[in-house]
């Protein structure tokens, strides 16, 4: 361990203790293996692998002792290593004496280790005699074979005492406690271990005795059994609520407590400190920093934080990647740091802690930070997002773009990172185990990556729901909240955009997905269709264009809404988080939350993609566990949004404060962009062009048992009214809707003068935008905004309609025609 | 003269058998949890003492009509590389020791899915026992 600089601070006592503990465990294992190998070697002297293994074991012990400052042990190990080096290089053959001496070495080192563990020092026992024996054996052999290559150098490095005593004779005055003749030409066993100290500390169990190594398979097996027990417990507990047997209830409660404790205990056996992953990082950071011409050190905190070993494995690579990234991209070169008034040496800090049943791991650097504008422009350059979308993003959204595949913010591609692969893989790996990752950065100050992962995967808390008569479990990690809409509010609460149902959750539009519908139950789809109709207040009699109005844009997709069938007509929405998106899952009923044991699914069912596993319910039946991410993908919640480009509206909210409003973004027939406050929008509908009728001067459509007057948005605006379009008289309805499309898009507005359908060319999006309006350019326009990088007029629809009504008396042909 | 043992069962009018070594156990009807979006042959999942087992409808797999009036199906649980799978059958028969010499390839007249799944027939006294190719029967197109 050569430390050219001092990147690591002086280890604190606790850290040192931990290192010593690991060293002790490792060394004991190494010694046990060595004994085994030595005995095998005695039987079969020609095994170079065995010699190499023993050599390595000694070498490791010697190296670590040197590092930790245990010089006595180091000297013993060193002498043994030299002897073994000669054996390895074939300078002399193994003899029973050598085997004996090496076995004694093992005993001596064990003794030293015991002393270290008990007292923290190597004790007072003298091992010089053993060292002399070892050196002597090597030297003697070499002398005995004059033709052998001289290997004097390694032997010569041994203690002066060994040299003094010369070959063959190893008696030293200090070893008075073992008054035998010491090793001679005879085969008599060496008695060089000082056994006086053995047993002195017998009252305290040693580390080796109190810790055992257990096969992971066995632990996995125990975990499975505990899972079974949890299930059996759940079944019994359910039973006790039915049967009024006091003895049964008491026993069941006892069983409950024991099971919970057992479950926790077994889970603990699988827990490992996260620090075990970090041991290598000081070295990684040091090497990488040198390679990049930077100065960096690592600071760690919370290495005792424990989590399930399978999860530990899962985050090993992502975490290493983040640490490397921090050095490679985060920390600046010393000159740049100096200029910025920072110490030349950068710090990469890793911190782990428990928070709300999850483990949080943070990797922070005090480097240059990530400039959101830079990420945006790179994302646009790489064609990952449109300039329009990028323009609309808040800083936090922009930073999260680094998790997109193919995006690298590294200015230069280095050997180690910056090739555009990595962060997306990090994200995927973290999400695979049910975790998530977030990035925060301040340009000039540094970057923090925050990984959140569950403690364990085997037993998880879940919400149990029903859909189409079946029960499903939804992992609590994905769950945000539950919303129940009472029957009388269903009509108002569930709205529709282009046939896709949405719900306004505290002002945010939440796309709704029907669980039963997604699971493809035909009957439910039909019922869901009816539910949509009633939910949206559509007439029983098919209204013109109802089909197109209800059909989602994806023609194969089943109807997106299914309202509760618990008889009361209420709608249960489970608000879920998938990736960065929220969506509402409509279920028939919400039954309970429970700890469930995740069991794997066979290949046939795994490939469906919407089930994460299965579990056994309280009544012994199987229940499927939903894969929320898979479900979102199937329902196009995730895709849909990616198309629209907005990653997280809530994030945009945070950055822009409260002065925002939801706007409906659309284009008129001239391609101009306009927006309308969503509050003014009653519904969005799509009608077939053929359903449009004329009633006198008005263009109308039959809608929900009434006649809805239609007006083209372009005709509302003063400019267009002053220069009326050339009118066609070919009898086609709505000649000026400039549409080759089969359908027309109508924004239904309920104003003072009743309902009006405003015909627009295309509905683009619903956006949440800060209302920093520029002054209006013409009457009827509240102001202009930049949305999606484009200047957009926000219409004052009530004023426009009032203006139309004022002029309609004089101009009979007002309205669309 | 070589013989082998087949566990036999019925699906509609078919008298079928599979190698007894592949069968873990035979159990009565268990409640099945539907697996939406799965291929039609997969009726769902059953709980076999804490192990989750896919229930494969053998009638459907063989392209036969669903049983509408009969008793609930029985489970023939077989071992596979991918865990346990249960064949849902109408009725269970005996374990029969059959003589290889009485084996014959399926006749040309046997068509469709059934032809791929049936290795051949053992000519028993008074009955034809069709040997099911277990592995092929398990290959349900996802």
List its salient traits:
heterodimer, A: 817 residues, alpha+beta, Four Helix Bundle (Hemerythrin (Met), subunit A), Helix Hairpins, Heat Shock Protein 90, 5 domains, 6-stranded mixed sheet, disordered N terminus, disordered C terminus, B: 142 residues, mainly beta, OB fold (Dihydrolipoamide Acetyltransferase, E2P), 5-stranded mixed sheet, 3 helices, 11 strands, globular
What does this structure look like?
- The complex is a heterodimer of chains A (817) and B (142).
- Chain A has 817 residues and is of the alpha+beta class.
- Chain A has five domains: 13-210, Up-down Bundle (Four Helix Bundle (Hemerythrin (Met), subunit A)), CATH 1.20.120.160; 216-269, Orthogonal Bundle (Helix Hairpins), CATH 1.10.287; 273-370 and 409-454, Histidine kinase-like ATPase, C-terminal domain (Heat Shock Protein 90, 2-Layer Sandwich); 460-637, SH3 Domains (SH3 type barrels, Roll); 649-808, CheA-289, Domain 4 (OB fold (Dihydrolipoamide Acetyltransferase, E2P), Beta Barrel), CATH 2.40.50.180.
- Chain A has 29 helices and 29 strands.
- In chain A, the strands form six sheets. In chain A, strands 10-14-15-13-12-11 form a six-stranded mixed sheet. A six-stranded mixed sheet of chain A has the order 21-25-26-24-23-22. A five-stranded mixed sheet of chain A has the order 2-4-5-7-6.
- In chain A, a hairpin with a 2-residue loop joins strand 25 (743-751) and strand 26.
- In chain A, helix 1 (13-43) runs antiparallel to helix 2 and helix 9 (216-242) runs antiparallel to helix 10.
- Chain A starts with 12 loop residues before the first helix and ends in a 9-residue tail after the last helix.
- Residues 1-11, 146-203, 411-421, 522-566, 639-658, 720-739 and 810-817 of chain A have low confidence and may be disordered.
- Chain B has 142 residues and is mainly beta.
- Helix content of chain B is 11%, strand content 51%.
- Chain B has a six-stranded mixed sheet. Chain B has a five-stranded mixed sheet with strand order 3-6-7-5-4.
- Chain A binds chain B through residues 227-228, 231, 468, 470-471, 519-521, 599-605, 607-608, 610-611, 614, 616, 620-624, and chain B through 31, 33-39, 42, 44-47, 50-52, 54, 82-83, 85, 140, 142.
